[in-house]
Amino acid sequence: MKHIDVIIIGGGPIGIACGLEAKKNGIEYLIIEKGPIVNSLFNYPINMQFFSSSEKLEIDDIPFISKEAKPKRNEALEYYRRIVTSNDLNINLFEKVITVQKRGDIFHIETEKQKYTASHVIVATGFYDLPNTINVPGENLSKVSHYYKDPHFYAKQKLVVVGASNSAVDAALECYRKGAEVTMIVRSPAIGNRVKYWVRPDIINRIEEGSIKAYFNAEVKEILPNQIIIKTPEGDISLENDYVLALTGYKPNFDFLKSIGIQLSDDEKLYPQYNEDTMETNLKNLYLAGVICGGMDTHIWFIENSRIHAKTILKSILKSKK
User: Fold this and answer.
1) Where are the alpha helices (DSSP H) in the chain?
2) Residue 60 and residue 46: Cα distance in Å, rounded?
3) What total number of domains does the chain contain?
C-alpha cells in the first residue's frame, strides 16, 4: 500500500489546479479521476459554449486562447489536457475512488484498482455525476436520458425536453435546428433569467413563433413507450413522444461525502461543513474544493470563482507541516 502526502479526488479543472499548486510547492501528490481528464467537461454536450470568457476559466495563470471570447467544450478539453500533459501531472485516470476512511491521522483510500494511504485528502468531485430525477412512472425507460450529447440523434423525432436551464435550452434549440419536433416542459411560468443572455432571446422567439412548443407551469406525470403525460393548469395532456431529455440539473454525491464523515447541513441545501479560510472540513486535513462546496446550490461555485481554492488549501497544508 503506497503512502502519498496529498491525494486529490477528482481530475476536473479545480482538481488539476490543486495538483499544479502541490507540485509547485514540492509536495508529493496524486490526482485520482474516475474517467478521462476533466471527465465532467468531456461529458458536456458536444457543441456547448461556456457562459464564462476564456480568461475566467484559466488556472495557475496559464493563458487560455479561444477563437471566441466564450470558449466551447472542445477548446476547454484541449486547454486542460495540455496543462496536464505539459506539466506532467501525477494523475491516475479511469480509477474510481470507492471509500475514504480516516484512522488516526492517516486516510485510507480504496479505489477500484488499488489502495493508498494519505496524510491529506482534497475532494474536488464536482456535481455532474448524479442527475436530479423527476420521479415519475416510466423514467427508467430507455427513451429517457438525463444527459444530452449530440442533436443529430434526435433528428425527425418527437422530443420532449424537461427543464429550462441552460442545458435544457441549448438542447431544445440544437435539436429543433437538426429537425426534431421539440416540446419543452417547464415548471416555472417563463424561461429563467439564468439562461445565457445571448441564448434566452432565441428560445423565447422560437417559442413565440411556434417552432418549439412549450408548456409552462407544467410537470411530467408519466412517461409511456410512445407517449408522455403532462400535468398543466388546464389539465392532463397526452403527447406522442419518441424521446425524453430530462435535463433538470445534477447534484454532488452526498452519500460519498457522508461515508467519509463530512458533516452536511440539516436542511434541503445539504451544505458541507468547511472552514472558508482554509477549505478544511470537520475532519482535520480533509479539504473540499470547487463546486461541491455549494451542496445543492450548484450555481454558487464555478471554475472562475473556485480557482482560488487550490492556493487556499495548499497554503493550509504547508502551514500544518511547520
Assistant:
1) 13-24, 39-42, 73-86, 166-177, 200-209, 254-260, 303-306, 308-320
2) 26
3) 2
Rounded to whole angstroms, the Cα distance separating 64 from 69 reads 10
Q: Which CATH number goes with the domain that contains 153?
A: 3.50.50.60
Residue 309: which domain range?
2-130+250-320
| Pair (238, 225) in one structural domain | yes
- Taking only the tens of pLDDT, the chain with its 322 residues reads 889 999 999 999 999 999 999 999 999 999 999 999 999 999 999 999 898 899 999 999 999 999 998 999 999 999 999 999 999 999 999 999 999 999 999 999 999 999 999 999 999 998 887 899 999 999 999 999 999 999 999 999 999 999 998 999 999 999 999 999 999 999 999 998 889 889 999 999 999 999 999 999 999 999 999 999 999 999 999 999 999 999 998 889 999 999 999 999 988 899 999 999 999 999 999 999 999 999 988 888 888 889 999 999 999 999 887 6
* Residues 14 and 110 both lie in one domain: yes
> What pTM did the predictor assign?
0.90
**Do 10 and 119 reside in the same domain of the chain?**
yes
Distance between CA atoms of residues 204 and 206, nearest Å: 6
Residue 280: strand pairing partners? 287
Concatenating the DSSP letter of every residue in 146-176 gives: S----GGGGTTSEEEEE--SHHHHHHHHHHH
